[in-house]
């Protein structure tokens, strides 16, 4: 093994797909032979199956997690002149989904322990222009939803949950994604439920909101119509091939989630006495799903280099908060503005986490981490 070889990856798409390849090929062939490629039976079946598993009444398939966020915000009325409060510690798509609608993203700080949206920071930022709040269930850990739901109770502020990393997570016994107006999911190939390309979905409990999203995703067409357009819409439908692949994988999502939780528990056992901050395992009905297992280390870069030399992959999610990104420089973000997020961005390191990670490789990862502190 050379000094730069990584033989335990941060994640492995191939390990999962290889095991399911016969089923995936059969599903894709079924679509090709049917001749129905857009908004056909695979999409309809997937939507029903996904909604049930996510604890929601309805689901609508779209072409990406980013589109899911954009459509959800548009469906609750976000537009020019509105403000939407989001965590700065997130992937930039949470912010761009606001910006493309002509609204202003207002950046809030995150909780020190969970790294999810801090309700106290949100409360300080609410103005008469606040139209929505987007809690991000980051790394698969649910945000603290009850204070945010209380904040939104008057009905003037809508909650859109960013569930890109939180398939099957629960918050106090309730399904993450089913608590706000919408839950927006990504099926990017590396996600806990990954497609064979870009794909996403929205879940909701209100039929009127479901119908509005159905119109928006399909060129503004009225539900069930062909050339009767109710509004200016988009073209961001979930295609049949991706829906068929997702239906195969959905059958395994619960077992994959249990495997992730077990691996997270092993990390806690094997790394508990080290000078690292470990992500919470969950309690009182709040159950994360560990899309990533992200630790915090003051010597993050040195630890990452050490792991790489020992053949262990790692990753930094995310090295720069959104309020400090060049794309949002015009909004006047400055260092020191959101201290928890800024500090976390310099300390976070994600360790290997995927359901197929063997116990032997997991032990190797932990031994490599421990070796750094010896």
Task: Detail the topology: elements first, then pairings.
Layout: H1 13-34, H2 41-53, E1 58-62, H3 65-75, E2 83-87, H4 93-99, E3 104-108, H5 119-125, E4 130-133, H6 145-152, E5 158-162, E6 170-171, E7 174-175, E8 182-186, E9 200-204, H7 207-217, H8 240-250, H9 253-271, E10 293-296, H10 300-309, H11 339-345, E11 348-351, H12 359-373
Parallel strand pairs: 2-3, 2-4, 4-5, 5-8
Antiparallel strand pairs: 1-9, 6-7, 8-9, 10-11
Helix pairs in contact: 1-8, 2-8, 3-4, 9-12
Taken in chain order, the helices and strands follow as HHEHEHEHEHEEEEEHHHEHHEH
* Helicity level: 25-40%
**Quick one: overall form?**
globular
Please count the beta strands (DSSP E, at least 2 residues each): 11
- Give the total of domains: 2
The level-1 CATH class of the largest domain: Alpha Beta
CATH homologous superfamily (4th level) name of the largest domain:
Type I PLP-dependent aspartate aminotransferase-like (Major domain)
Main pleated-sheet profile: 7 strands, mixed
Average of the residue pLDDT scores: 96
CATH topology of the largest domain: Aspartate Aminotransferase, domain 2
Low-confidence stretches: none
Compute the number of helices.
12
Strand portion: 5-15%
CATH level-two architecture of the largest domain: 3-Layer(aba) Sandwich
Compute the gyration radius: what is it? 21 Å
**Termini separation:** 22 Å
Derived from helix and strand composition plus strand pairing, the structural class reads alpha/beta
Strand order of the largest sheet: 1-9-8-5-4-2-3
């Amino acid at each position: 093994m050379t000094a730069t070889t990584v033989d335990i990856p941060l994640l492995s798409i191939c390990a999962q797909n290889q095991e399911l390849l016969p089923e995936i090929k059969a599903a894709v062939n079924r679509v090709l032979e049917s001749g129905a490629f857009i908004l056909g039976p695979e999409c309809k079946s997937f939507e029903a199956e996904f909604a049930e598993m996510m604890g929601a009444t309805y689901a609508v398939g779209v072409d990406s997690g980013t589109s899911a966020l954009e459509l959800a915000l548009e469906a609750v009325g976000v537009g020019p002149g509105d403000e939407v409060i989001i965590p700065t510690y997130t992937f930039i798509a949470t912010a761009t989904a606001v910006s493309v609608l002509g609204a202003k993203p207002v950046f809030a700080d995150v909780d020190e322990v969970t790294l999810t949206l801090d309700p106290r920071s949100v409360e300080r930022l609410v103005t008469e222009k606040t139209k929505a709040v987007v809690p991000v269930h980051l790394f698969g850990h649910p945000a603290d939803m009850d204070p945010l739901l209380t904040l939104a109770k008057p009905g003037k502020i809508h909650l859109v949950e960013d569930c890109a990393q939180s398939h099957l997570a629960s918050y106090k016994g309730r399904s993450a994604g089913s608590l706000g107006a919408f839950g927006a999911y990504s099926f990017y190939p590396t996600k806990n439920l990954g497609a064979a390309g870009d794909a996403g979905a929205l879940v909701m409990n209100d039929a009127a909101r479901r119908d509005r999203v159905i119109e928006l995703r399909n060129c503004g067409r009225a539900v069930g119509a062909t050339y009767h357009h109710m509004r200016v819409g988009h073209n961001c439908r979930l295609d049949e091939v991706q829906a068929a692949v997702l239906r195969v994988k959905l059958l395994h999502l619960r077992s994959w989630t249990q495997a992730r939780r077990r691996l997270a528990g092993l990390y806690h056992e094997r790394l508990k006495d080290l000078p690292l901050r470990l992500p919470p395992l969950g309690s009182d009905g709040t159950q994360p799903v560990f899309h990533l297992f992200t630790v915090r280390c003051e010597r993050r870069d040195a630890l990452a280099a050490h792991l790489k030399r020992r053949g262990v992959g790692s990753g930094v999610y995310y090295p720069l908060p959104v309020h400090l990104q060049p794309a949002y420089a015009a909004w006047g973000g400055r260092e020191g503005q959101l201290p928890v997020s800024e500090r976390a961005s310099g300390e976070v390191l994600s360790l290997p986490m995927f359901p197929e990670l063997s116990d032997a490789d997991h032990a190797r990862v932990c031994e490599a981490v421990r070796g750094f502190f010896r």
